[in-house]
Amino acid sequence: MDTIKIAVLGLGAVGQGVVMMLNAQKELLEKKAGCSIELGRVLEKYLTKKRDVQLPEDMCTNRWEDILHDPSISIIVETIGGIEPARTYLLQALKAGKSVVTANNDLLAEYGSELFLAAREAQRDLYFENSVGGAIPLIRALRQNLSVCRLTQVMGIINGTTNYILTRMGEGCDFDKALSEAQEIGFTEPDPRADVDGYDAARSAAILATLAFHSQVQFADVYTEGITKVTKEDIAIAKSLGYTIKLLALCRNDGESIEARVHPSLIPEGNPLSNVKDTYYAIFVNGEELGETMFYGLGIGRLPSAIAILDDVVAVAQNIRGDCQGRLNAVESRTLPILPMAKVETRFYLRLLLTDEPGALARVTEILGEYKVSIARVHQTILSAGVAEVVFITHLAVEGDMQEAVSSIRVLPITQQVLSLIRVEGSRHGQ
Predict the structure, then answer these.
(1) pTM value?
(2) Of residues 135, 138, 87, the one with CA closest to residue 113
(3) For residue 362, what are the contacts with CB-CB under 8 A and spacing of at least 6?
């Protein structure tokens, strides 16, 4: 039986998971691929660092050239993350005739077109299932199973770290404590800004929008807002009004433009996304012929990630044996315009501290009306003598109009503080 050797770049949590599963599932992988899949080399910057996996010394190297110029290596599995040196390594690997499996959404969101083109020119595979959604088979579904469906929306929770933090905040933790817990458990990197500022989710959203709508969407095209301004008070108030707060990715295509955004959102408690907790992901895909489909599962963790990566490895191995390429290397040539955030229509949750005096609430509602913002619900609480907390839920309004209204409200003599402005998304059926 043929043997196909792989090299793993990076021996962090995900890289170690790949090595563990490669050893534990050797017979199953062999059966699925129709050949033996063996670990040939591992690229690791710190060779003496203690790991959960034990490897022969001669298998590990900190020199990329040792792998690039090794003719026995057919597949490169990249788990380094970040842009460089991963981008250079993968371009060189493809040019050298090696196929690539990557988990790197940072790289694909910004340089995906370059990599796909390089793979096509080299007639080699570039697979990337784990770049979005962990073990959820979302990429392959969008690229293959739903490729002939006219998709109109991809919406959901695509960052497990922020979902864990918001879940804990809903249980009474403040943001800092919930973040500290996530770091201690290992759900986030030492520098968590990519997660909590929304950048990781935005990169995933760019990849999903590109695949779903067959049009180039870059990371820079995605409006991005993280969860650092969400408070446990907002979460408690939202719950009292029948909502849950989640970090959502929303990508929509009306045929003329693409809407791509990531931000905290209030979701009605009857919506399935409201019950997605901890590190689970959930993504709704809507299509004209498809209707609505939901993908759900664990989004982070070394083993869920390893499952997605090794499934790609098996697919690439099958292609190598069949002397062909897979169906995942098409370069999207269409470029629909991105709808500016100021033109997006949504609903809003607005929380203010106002001076408790006659006419104060009426003045705020008057300004909202001047900017064509209609109010669906108002909730007022007297906090102390002379101070009222007022919460508005609006009907659909244009983002730019709402932002201008809030700017006008902020400078009113009766406004003590604008505490929160969070968008409201989703019906009770996921729309």
Answers:
(1) 0.91
(2) 87
(3) none
